[in-house]
Design brief:
The complex is a heterodimer of chains A (about 350) and B (about 350).
Chain A (H helix, E strand, L loop, with lengths): L1 H5 L2 H10 L6 H9 L2 H17 L6 H26 L7 H18 L5 H24 L5 H20 L11 H8 L1 E2 L2 E2 H19 L1 H11 L1 H6 L4 H27 L10 H11 L11 H20 L4 H35 L1
Antiparallel strand pairs in A: 1-2
Chain B lengths: L1 H45 L5 E5 L6 H16 L3 E5 L6 H14 L3 E4 L8 H9 L3 E5 L10 E4 L3 H15 L4 E7 L5 H14 L7 E8 L4 H14 L3 E6 L2 H13 L7 E4 L3 H10 L4 E4 L2 H17 L9 E3 L5 E7 L2 E5 L4 E4 L3 H4 L4
Parallel strand pairs in B: 1-2, 1-3, 3-4, 4-5, 5-13, 6-7, 6-8, 8-9
Antiparallel strand pairs in B: 10-14, 11-12, 12-13
Classes of the chains: A mainly alpha (about 350), B alpha/beta (about 350).
């Protein structure tokens, strides 16, 4: 069923392409509606939670949700690119831990280091990790799921090795480093600011650059992409490296936010990121996925994480409810999208 | 190109294998060197009729383990015997098995071990017991068949009751409190929470109300969300008990970031190094954990008791553990154990010293 749904990857590309043509006013507005189902679902969910706990929709809580979701949202951008190319990256939880650990140990040794330098160091570590994964996938032709599963263990092992099994704790980190995640810019938490910047860059990259469009082309049909002159292995290498860089960034932010680096940081977190992408309408079959979609996907997961503890249900039911909400959201989104796709096709015939 | 790659990869694998063997060899020779030294020392000591008590910790370079071995050594030396302190380079059962074998051939009188695996050590430890060596575990238990008894960190009842007494003192004996635990299935935490609830039944806590038990699953992000939800759902909350290391640190971070230091008090069980920041800032006035020195010290006296025949490791037996006073052996599943007793209190006065330890 899913195949049938998203089996029109070429459509996604042509839609994207059409956005640049001036006469797209209505198709452009329809493109936005594709995520309408998810948006409506989020609004209903918020209303429901608000009825049960009036402190849900307060400014403070919304701020908390946004801050807690920022890291997930940043990772979703990279994961979306990877999934669009028909790949998957299971190594990001480990990469996140490794880059966070190295950054934390560096500031522990050099407390006077500017936090921006720690941030850059984390990104660099992430890029190296992503570059290796990208090499395995693009040059060695190893299946992404296998390559990243292997590297997941390698990176996790390296994290334990560099830390010697020890944690870097709050009192070992300088205030300036912790302020990275608690500080604000124009009244908005730094994490949110960074996530917004990442999203603006990602939006521009996937919609308005040649390389960005090639990512979609490689994902929807690798063979024809190769025939039309796109160096598919370079695109693959690039998306995994980008994923690594974003993960490195997220790793430093994570450690700064929780003021603690441990070996098992973010273990299994990659599944949350993949869930956010799939919720946001990124097709596992490759070729389609939108920035607006993954924002909504991440936000929905963020709201769930915040809301479930607040509606006061037994912890035994929490996972059940979380799973059901995700399934229902995917179904509603699929139904709405199917209707809109059909409408779009009908309009094309006329 | 492909061939080159294959060649290259094969070479890398071969080198890494060699490197692995190399380091193993080094470790092996290092260990046997240590064992030889110990054996020499014991040969000298044999003349004086000293008994030999060995302790094997999980791995070297672990400050928590160093403290435990320090306590063990103190107990053995108080009795005038000789302590052999050992720990493998890597926290694996294999490395510990090798050490047990060495100790058996050295004919020590007792082995106390913090097991890296509850079951994998069984063959080696039963062999030791057959050779007449008294075996006990401490800190992390080995299974009941491979030990005479086990020395447990702290008594679950004392942990639960102490935490409630602590939080009640912090909030002045009245107000709402909440518990932030690990997973809803965690055996340790659930036992402690049971004891907390029993302690709360005491009429002196009539004004202390436990509003919720939240589960942070020992994940940073989930523990943070759960703490935030507690603060919002219960605006009058005055105290949080987090009997888990990740949970208490996450709660400390949330209370710090939200500037709730004077409004909500935090206590629980945490690692001193993780909690130093929050204890020094006053977000968490004090917290508890067991004292590794005392765990080692008690294990030392338990081993002495076993060797002297004072105890056999059966339920109901009692012995005197130096400055810790009289201890009783109690049942623990199939086997038996000895409880350390009250958890150790970490506050602003002693945290500076302990944060470097573990």
């Amino acid at each position: 069923m899913k195949q049938k749904e998203w089996g029109q990857p070429a459509l996604a590309v042509s839609q994207g392409a059409r956005q640049t043509v001036p006469k797209t006013s209505f198709s452009g507005s329809f493109a936005k509606f594709r995520e309408m189902g998810l948006l409506v679902f989020i609004v209903l969910l918020c209303a429901g939670v608000q009825l049960r706990n009036p402190s849900f929709l307060t400014w403070e809580n919304i701020n908390d949700i946004a801050t807690n979701t920022a890291i997930l949202a940043i990772l979703s951008v990279g994961m979306m690119l990877v999934i669009i190319t028909r790949g998957i990256d299971l190594s990001i939880g480990a990469t996140l831990a490794l880059s966070g650990m190295i950054a934390a140990q560096t500031v522990q040794q050099m407390p006077s280091l500017h936090p921006a330098a720690a941030l850059l160091l984390g990104i660099a570590v992430g890029i190296v990790c992503g570059w290796i994964v990208g090499f395995l996938v693009s040059k060695m032709d190893i299946l992404p799921i296998i390559a990243t599963l292997g590297m997941m263990n390698v990176f996790r092992g390296l994290t334990y090795e560099t830390s010697g099994g020890k944690w870097v704790s709050a009192h070992q980190m300088p205030e300036s480093f912790k302020a990275l995640a608690t500080g604000t810019f124009l009244g908005v938490n730094n994490l949110i600011v960074i996530a917004v910047l990442v999203y603006i860059a990602a939006y521009y990259f996937v919609n308005h650059t040649r390389t960005g469009r090639r990512v979609y082309a490689v994902g929807s049909n690798p063979e024809s992409a190769a025939i039309s002159g796109i160096k598919t292995d370079r695109i693959l290498w690039l998306v995994y490296t980008l994923m690594g860089g974003l993960t490195g960034l997220a790793g430093v932010l994570w450690v700064s936010k929780f003021a603690s680096a441990q070996g098992d940081t973010a273990s299994g977190y990659e599944l949350n990121v993949i869930a956010a992408c799939v919720l946001g309408g990124v097709s596992i079959a490759g070729g389609s996925g939108k920035v607006s979609g993954i924002i909504l996907g991440s936000v929905l997961l963020g709201i769930l994480n915040n809301a479930l503890p607040m509606i006061n249900v037994s912890p035994f039911w929490q996972s059940w409810i979380q799973g059901m909400i995700i399934v229902v959201a995917v179904i509603i989104n699929a139904l709405v999208k199917r209707g809109i796709d059909r409408n779009n096709l009908m309009r094309r015939k006329i | 190109m492909k061939k080159m790659m294959t060649l290259g990869l094969t070479a890398v694998m071969a080198v890494s294998l060699l490197a692995g063997c190399g380091s193993n060899n080094n470790a092996g020779s290092g260990e046997s060197g240590g064992a030889n030294a110990a054996a020499d020392a014991s040969n000298g000591a044999d003349a004086g009729g000293k008994k030999k008590f060995a302790i094997i910790f999980k791995n070297t370079g672990n400050p928590y383990g160093e403290k435990m071995m320090e306590g063990f050594k103190k107990a053995i030396e108080e009795k005038g015997d000789e302590a052999i302190l050992k720990a493998p380079d890597q926290p694996t059962a294999e490395a510990q098995i090798q050490m047990i074998e060495e100790l058996i051939s050295q004919k020590v009188d007792s082995i106390s071990i913090a097991g890296n695996d509850p079951d994998a050590l069984q063959p080696a430890l039963t062999k030791a017991m057959k050779a007449g060596i008294k075996v006990s575990s401490l800190d992390s238990a080995v299974n009941a068949q491979s030990r005479n008894t086990h020395v447990n960190q702290a008594d679950p009842e004392r942990i639960g009751r102490t935490l409630i007494q602590g939080v009640s003192e912090m909030i002045g004996g009245e107000g709402e409190i909440a518990i932030l635990s690990a997973t809803s299935q965690a055996t340790n935490q659930n036992t402690w929470i049971e004891w907390m609830k029993k302690e709360l039944e005491d009429p002196k806590y009539a004004n202390v109300k436990l509003v919720k038990v939240a589960y942070g699953d020992d994940l940073r992000d989930k523990s943070v969300s759960e703490t935030e939800a507690l603060l919002k759902s219960y605006p009058n909350l005055k105290g949080i008990i987090a009997p888990t290391t990740v949970g208490i640190a996450a709660a400390g971070k949330v209370l710090t970031d939200k500037g709730l230091k004077d409004k909500v008090k935090l206590t629980g069980l945490g690692l001193p190094s993780e909690m130093a920041e929050y204890i020094e800032s006053g977000v968490c006035p004090w917290m508890y954990l067991w004292n590794p020195i005392d765990v080692g010290y008690l294990a030392g006296f338990a081993a002495e008791g076993l060797v002297a025949g004072e105890i056999t490791g059966a339920t109901g037996e009692k012995f005197t553990a130096g400055s810790l006073g009289e201890k009783e052996i109690v049942a623990d599943g199939d086997g038996t154990q000895i409880m350390l007793g009250d958890p150790f209190k970490f506050d602003a006065g002693n945290i500076a010293e302990w944060k470097e330890v573990y």
